Target: Fatty-acid amide hydrolase 2
Amino acid sequence: MVKMNGDNRITLRKINRACVKFFQAIVEFVVRCMFKLLYGNNGPKMPPIKNLILLESASSIAFKIRTKRVTSVYVVKSFIERIEEINPLLNCVVANRFNEALKEAEAVDELIKSNTLSEEDLAANKPFLGVPFTTKDCIAVKGMIHTAGLYKRKDVIAEEDAHVIAALKNAGAILIGLTNISELCMWWESANTLHGRTNNPYDINRIVGGSSGGEGCIQAAAGSAFGIGSDIGGSVRMPAFFNGTFGHKASPNIIPLSGQYPSPATEKQKYMLSIGPIVRHAEDLLPLFKLIVLKDVMPLLRLDEKVDIKGIRFHYQENDSGSKLVSPVHKDIRELFRKISGYLEKAHNIKAQRVNLQRFRMSTAMWMLGMKSPNGPTFDQQLSNLEGSINVWWELFKWCFRCSNHTFIGLATALLEKKEASENDSKSEYIQKETNILRREIIDLLGDDGVLLYPTHPTPAPYHNEPIFKAFNFSYTGVINVLGFPATNIPMGLSSEGVPIGIQVIANDKNDRLCLAVAKEFEKAFGGWITPEIQA
Model:
C-alpha cells in the first residue's frame, strides 16, 4: 500500500472539490434549463399601482396622518384594496382583520380630529399612528390564527400579542393581516399544505424566499406599509433579497422573541433567532427598530448617534470561498461589488478593501451545528405539533399520492436531522472551533467602525421548487446567524433576468446602526426598491 504525504492529500482534496463543483455545475445547468422550459416567462403580471399613497414610506404616511393631510381610514382602505387586488395572484396574505382595522382607523381619525394631543406628542409617543402593517403567520397576534404553516395548527388562535406586535400597536400601528411562510419556518420557499404557495411579484413563476416570504412579497407589491418577519437562517434577509426590499436581522438577544412559533429549543437557537422589519424604504428601518428592541439595551446600540459614512471602513467578499454544493455567485451580483466600490471611492474617497475569509466555505456545517437540539424536540415531533411524533417514512409514502398534510421539504428536513444527530462529537468540536475562529476574525476585521459587504444569496430568485436542487444556498445568510452579527439586506436593482438582486451589510455585535446607515446611503446612491408598474 502506498502512503500519501501531506501534499498528496491536499492535491487529492483539491481534485475532489473540483470534481464536485464540475458535477454540481452540470446538474444546476440542466435543472435551470428544465425549469426555464417549464415556466419560461409566462404568466399574468402584477396589477399596476394606481394609488400613489402606496408608494410612500411608513414614516411619511404617519406624518401625513397626524398632520391631517390624509386620514387613517383612507390609508387603511387603500392598502386593503391593494391586497384584494394582488392576493389572488400572489397568495401572500393568509388571514386578515380588515373590518377591525377600519374601526381602529376611525378611532385614530377621531383622536387626531379632537386635538387632544399635539402633533409633537403624537410623533413622540405614537410615531406610527394609523399606519397599517402585516406580519408573518408564526408571530402571535391576539385573536388571529397562529399556524406557523403547520396543518395541524390550522385552528390554533393566539391568546396574546407577541412583544413586537404589542410594541407596534402601542406606537399606533394597525395590524391588517398575516402573511404566508414555509412549514414551521424551515425552508427558503414559502409554501405549505395549509395555505399554499406564494408567488414573486416580479415573476410569479419564481419564489419569494422563506420563511418570511409572504412578508417580503407583500412589501414588494405595496400591499402593506411595513412588515415584521423573523430570521434564524436568513428568513428576513432572503425574502427581502428575492423581493427587492430592505430587511434587517438584529444583533442577538436585543429583541424579545415572545409569541414566535416554533420557539427556540436551545440557548444557541435563541442566540441565532431574531425578529425584525421588512420595508420598502430604508428610512423606516431605524424608527421601527427602536420600537421593538429591549429598552435596557438601547444605550449599547447608540441608535441616536449620527453615523458618518466617511467614518466607516468598508470591506467586501464576493463569495464564500468555495462551499461544496452551494451555487457560484451570479455575475450580476458579483458586478454589484464593483459598482459599490466605484461609488464609495468617487462619492466619499473611501477605498473598499477586498477580503477572503476562507472559513466561510464551512457556512452550511456551522449553521447545522448551531441548529442541533440534543434534548429535543426533534423536527418530526415539531411536525406533530409536539403531540408525539409523525412517522416520517409513512408520511413520505402518503406524500407521493398527495395525501400527506406535510410538505416534502418538511419531511426531508426531519430525515436530515436524524442523520445529523448521528454524527460524532469530534466532527462537531472541529466545526465549533472553526466557527469561533471565523467569528474572531470578523470581530478583529470590523472593530467598532467597520462593515462587511457580502452576498445575501448567490443567485437571483429561482423558479418554484428549484431550491430543492440548491438546498444549501441559504448558507450565505445562515452563517451570520450562527456568528451573531447584525445584517441588513439592501436591494440593488434588478438582474438581467428582471428580478431583484442585492447584498447584505454586516457589522459587529450591537453595531446595527452602521448597517442601517449604509442601507440609507446605498438606497440614495442606487435607488433601493424598484416600484412595480404604476398607472397614472
